[in-house]
Amino acid sequence: MRAGTDTVAQETPVPLQSVARVVRSKNAGPTQLTLDVFLRDAHAYARAAASPALQADAVAGLYGLACGQVARYELPALQALKFTLPRRVVAGSPGDGDVYGAQQHGPLLGVEI
């Protein structure tokens, strides 16, 4: 656990969307997606960064991916977390229902941290 997160870890879980300013997804090239989570303040960022539900392996499970297929990036100066994961279908190919990758953040909204 990171320094200063002991109190955060003991708080009652809340939905991510209640402490996030922005939760979005977009393409990161034709074969990958990026999920961005911008938190409301430093406390919300610390809470999200320390949450087991927002570790790379947990996000992989949420999207039905194997551990190791999701990369997590912490951006404390922006109070943001970023995840990169493979798209199920190459952007724009037959069967792609979201060519811009802008509708893939939904599963994160219900995550409790």
What does this structure look like?
This protein has 113 residues and is of the alpha+beta class. It has a domain at 14-88: Alpha-Beta Plaits (2-Layer Sandwich). It contains five helices and four strands.
Map the helices and strands.
Layout: H1 6-9, H2 16-19, E1 20-27, E2 32-39, H3 42-50, H4 56-62, E3 71-75, E4 80-86, H5 106-109
Antiparallel strand pairs: 1-2, 2-4, 3-4
Low-confidence stretches: none
Q: Overall mean pLDDT score? A: 93
> What is the molecular shape?
elongated
Q: Predict the CATH topology of the domain at 14-88.
A: Alpha-Beta Plaits
Summed up, the helix count is 5
Helix amount: 10-25%
Count the beta strands: 4
How much of the polypeptide forms β-strand, as a percent range? 15-25%
Outline the biggest β-sheet: 4 strands, antiparallel
Radius of gyration: 14 Å
CATH second-level architecture of the domain at 14-88? 2-Layer Sandwich
- End-to-end Cα distance: 15 Å
Strand order, largest beta sheet: 1-2-4-3
From N to C, what is the helix and strand string?
HHEEHHEEH
**Secondary-structure class:** alpha+beta
CATH class of the domain at 14-88: Alpha Beta
Quick rundown:
The chain is α+β, with helices and mostly antiparallel strands and 113 residues long. It has helices at 6-9, 16-19, 42-50, 56-62, 106-109, and strands at residues 20-27, 32-39, 71-75, 80-86.
Feature tags:
113 residues; alpha+beta; Alpha-Beta Plaits; elongated
